[in-house]
């Protein structure tokens, strides 16, 4: 850890805790140095000095995992109550406090106080993570920088982000996010920033604040005590707010096009120009969309204010990628799976990339292809020793080490290691088969051009791809968890290939996030989930009699919706000890499947005849939860459901799980969340009522490319049946998607639009099986350009409207021949 003696002096000891935070030590009072912090017993134990914090959330209590953590190796604990069986925890130390989260925050704040260095804090409604990643990439080649991993900006994420701060660091960059009043002051105390950036202010979390101004005032608390605050003067609300001199002692550093900006910014083509009193720079932009350029300006101004050399700045900007944090999961050749992180290689990102590889490897061996880590500061030998420890702790079986420094440090690695001095040297002798069946993490600094390795190992792809953002999935899942009443379970709906996004990847991610139950439509979907490493309980909504024999081997629990089905299941289960429990569906008004209220008595009788059948849950489905015009009907459905539930559970003598609402019902009918909710489309960032849309992030993005562009004269026709007609000179682009890919044929002839180079452009002519033509007249569109069919813009909701259907159909129609690619941080 850094330079010996100094680091030793700096470490906070577990026995220091009572001096720093409210609480007392119980069990062994140890002078152990606190080296790492964890809230998650699923993670690999990180060795001596690791502290496990038991934190209580609305739906999760870290205290339930104390024993699991102990068994994995933790001996230092911060708790709000001691375990009842404390004598089992031999040699363990507990810090007993009334608020574990506060202890975590105070500890991180005390750690932060030990260092004096420039620390940048970033907040704003959007773009925090991107601004942070850009700034990091601008600085990290010349100084040693610590930053928040991923988008760790919460009450928990911030302390964990600040903790790795060490002697060799020369700057820190942390993001801070809040969802309710009062939170920012706590984050400020932890980060103790010297420079602030406010990216922008939008509608996210509006509901919890009385006004936009109140939200802005709350966010600005982060910057109290900063020397400088960077902001865009063209954001009117922010500019006006700051002109009120609300932050005494903080110098406002505005940039923008208008007057009053310290940095006058303009873009000409793909050049960004900044001019200020002391100088000016011109930078070639690697991208030109407004959002990315705005995010970049924040980072560039911050870097200039931190004294970055201008030629380094220009060079670093030229190699930025628009969306820097993308780590993607792809299908490889010979049944392998690739985790592609060929954009950057920093030590902090390695753990996240490995965790993604582990989550999706389900037991298959993991190999890592790793380049030199180009990170200023830490001593090389130490660095690669840490890399080795990380790879070992994650169970990596093989390393391909590429680059002059990592290959020279080959003896640091205690696993099979193949060293190469360069990417070319590896490519020359690469044998694609060597990774058959494995999960391969490919992580390299930009200059190593690891995309060449990815190209060689990737299964050949159709250029139409459904991009699935697993980070967005996590965000949406956590959003729904946050609006659940305490203790309410989640059943995640993974039917229809998880709404088109891929049941294995979606299922494993939600399993990792601790969803409680899974539901699928058919037994085969359940079998697939099991084969893909999902071991949560699974409810199957349509399990015909022929499938019963298959259910026990895969622990699939059938929904039972009719008397004949119940009787068949009862007969079949006779003498079978392993018959899975059932889920009883009551029809309260949907009139699709389920027992009528008049049949409940008969159900009770049949259940009495087959006492070995266990009922896991009783549920019903709402017909109009998304529409307030049907609210009266919904209340009637709920009352009917409760009556049936009462009757059934009284006779059973126990209380099966009670569940009623789907996505739209979760927020609209809080009191009907009961024991569990069934969430489907909301996980994908699509909200049928659009009420919560601002809080959700779109998960799936269907994209393709332009295959050809041609100019047609007036009076020509386009496509089959000469359906598209040109009445003037018309530029037509043919794109590589058709109805066989799931693009509805009804979107032809201008009904649908796609996004090319930021412009929504209409179809022309009929949609063909594999291709569609688009009228691109007047827009600079070329062969190979990316086309967004649905995603953020246009949204699946919007496309559904054009096609006169609902977003569910748009999502689930994307055909299997379209490759899925999974993105994460
Ligand atoms: C599909 C389905 C859901 C999920 O509905 P969403 O509107 O996508 O949240 C819930 N319950 C049942 C019975 C379903 O079939």
UniProtKB/TrEMBL annotation:
Cofactor: pyridoxal 5'-phosphate
Residues modified to N6-(pyridoxal phosphate)lysine: 495
Keywords: Isomerase, Ligase, Pyridoxal phosphate
Protein EC: 5.1.1.1
Enzyme class (EC, first level): isomerase
Pathway entry: Amino-acid biosynthesis; D-alanine biosynthesis; D-alanine from L-alanine: step 1/1
Active-site feature positions: 495 (proton acceptor), 720 (proton acceptor)
Residues annotated as binding substrate: 592, 769
Catalytic activity: L-alanine = D-alanine
Keyword Transmembrane on entry: no
Residue span, Alanine racemase C-terminal domain: 699-823
GO molecular-function terms, A-Z: ligase activity
CDD domains: PLPDE_III_AR
Family to which the UniProt record says this protein belongs: Belongs to the alanine racemase family.
Protein's job: Catalyzes the interconversion of L-alanine and D-alanine. May also act on other amino acids.
The protein's name in its UniProt record: Alanine racemase
Organism: Imperialibacter roseus
């Amino acid at each position: 850890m850094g330079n010996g003696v100094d680091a030793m002096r700096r470490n906070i000891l577990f026995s220091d805790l009572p001096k720093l935070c409210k609480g007392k030590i119980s069990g062994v009072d140890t002078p152990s140095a606190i080296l790492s912090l964890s809230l998650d017993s699923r993670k690999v134990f990180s060795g001596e000095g690791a502290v496990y914090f038991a934190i209580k959330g609305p739906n999760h209590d870290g205290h339930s995992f104390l024993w699991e953590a102990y068994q994995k190796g933790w001996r230092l604990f911060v708790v709000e109550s001691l375990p009842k069986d404390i004598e089992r925890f031999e040699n363990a130390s507990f810090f007993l406090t009334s608020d574990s989260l506060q202890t975590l925050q105070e500890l991180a704040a005390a750690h932060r106080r030990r260092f004096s260095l420039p620390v940048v804090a970033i907040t704003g409604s959007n773009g925090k993570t991107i601004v942070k990643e850009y700034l990091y990439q601008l600085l990290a080649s010349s100084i040693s920088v610590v930053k928040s991993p991923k988008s760790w900006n919460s009450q928990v994420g911030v302390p964990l982000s600040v903790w790795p701060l060490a002697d060799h660091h020369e700057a820190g960059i942390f993001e801070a996010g809040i969802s309710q009043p009062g939170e920012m002051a706590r984050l400020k105390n932890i980060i103790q920033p010297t420079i602030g950036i406010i990216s922008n202010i939008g509608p996210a979390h509006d509901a919890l604040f009385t006004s936009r101004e109140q939200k802005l005032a709350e966010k600005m608390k982060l910057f109290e005590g900063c020397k400088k605050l960077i902001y865009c003067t063209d954001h009117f609300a922010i500019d006006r707010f700051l002109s009120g001199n609300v932050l005494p002692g903080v110098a406002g550093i505005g940039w923008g096009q208008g007057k009053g900006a310290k940095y006058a910014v303009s873009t000409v083509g793909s050049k960004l120009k900044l001019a200020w009193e002391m100088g000016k720079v011109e930078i070639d932009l690697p991208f030109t969309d407004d959002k990315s350029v705005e995010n970049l300006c924040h980072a560039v101004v911050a870097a200039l204010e931190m004294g970055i050399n201008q030629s380094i700045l220009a060079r670093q900007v030229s190699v930025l990628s628009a969306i820097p944090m993308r780590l993607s999961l792809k299908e490889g050749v010979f049944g392998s799976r690739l985790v592609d992180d060929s954009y950057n290689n920093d030590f902090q990102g390695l753990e996240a990339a490995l965790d993604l590889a582990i989550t999706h490897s389900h037991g298959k061996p993991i190999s890592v292809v790793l380049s030199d880590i180009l990170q200023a500061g830490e001593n090389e030998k130490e660095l690669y020793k840490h890399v080795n420890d990380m790879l070992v702790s994650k169970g990596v079986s093989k390393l391909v080490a590429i680059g002059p420094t990592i290959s020279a440090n080959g003896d640091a690695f205690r696993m099979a290691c193949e060293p190469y001095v360069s990417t070319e040297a590896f490519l020359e002798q690469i044998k694609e088969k060597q990774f058959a069946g494995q999960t391969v993490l490919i992580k390299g600094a930009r200059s190593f051009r690891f995309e060449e390795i990815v190209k060689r190992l990737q299964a050949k792809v159709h250029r139409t791809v459904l991009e699935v953002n697993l980070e967005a999935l996590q965000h949406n899942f956590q959003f729904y968890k946050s609006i659940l009443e305490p203790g309410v379970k989640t059943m995640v709906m993974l039917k229809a290939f998880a709404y088109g996004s891929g049941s294995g990847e979606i299922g494993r991610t939600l399993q990792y996030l601790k969803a409680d139950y899974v539901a699928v439509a058919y037994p085969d979907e359940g079998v697939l989930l099991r084969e893909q490493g999902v071991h949560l309980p699974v409810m199957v909504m349509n399990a015909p009699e022929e499938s019963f024999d298959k259910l026990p081997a895969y622990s699939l629990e059938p929904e039972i919706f009719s008397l004949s089905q119940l009787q068949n299941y009862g007969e079949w289960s006779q003498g079978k000890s392993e018959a899975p429990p059932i889920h009883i569906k009551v029809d309260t008004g949907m009139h699709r499947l389920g027992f009528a209220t008049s049949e409940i008595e008969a159900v009770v009788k049949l259940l009495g005849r087959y006492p070995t059948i266990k009922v896991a849950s009783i549920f019903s489905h709402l017909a109009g939860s998304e529409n307030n015009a049907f609210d009266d009907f919904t209340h009637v459905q709920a009352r009917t459901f409760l009556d049936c539930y009462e009757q059934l559970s009284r006779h059973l003598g126990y209380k099966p799980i009670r569940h009623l609402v789907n996505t739209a019902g979760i927020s609209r009918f809080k009191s009907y969340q009961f024991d569990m909710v069934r969430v489907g489309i909301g996980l994908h960032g699509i909200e049928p009522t659009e009420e919560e849309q601002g809080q959700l992030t779109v998960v799936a993005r269907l994209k393709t490319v332009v295959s050809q562009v041609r100019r047609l004269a007036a009076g020509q026709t386009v496509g089959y049946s000469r359906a598209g007609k040109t009445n003037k000179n018309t530029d037509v682009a043919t794109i590589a998607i058709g109805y066989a890919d799931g693009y509805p044929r009804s979107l032809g002839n201008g009904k649908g639009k796609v996004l090319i180079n930021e412009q929504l452009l209409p179809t022309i002519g009929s949609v063909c099986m594999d291709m569609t033509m688009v009228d691109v007249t007047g827009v600079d569109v070329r062969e190979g350009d990316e086309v967004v069919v649905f995603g953020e813009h246009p949204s699946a909701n919007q496309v559904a409207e054009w096609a006169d259907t609902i977003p569910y159909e748009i999502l689930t129609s994307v055909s299997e021949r379209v490759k899925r690619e999974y993105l994460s941080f």
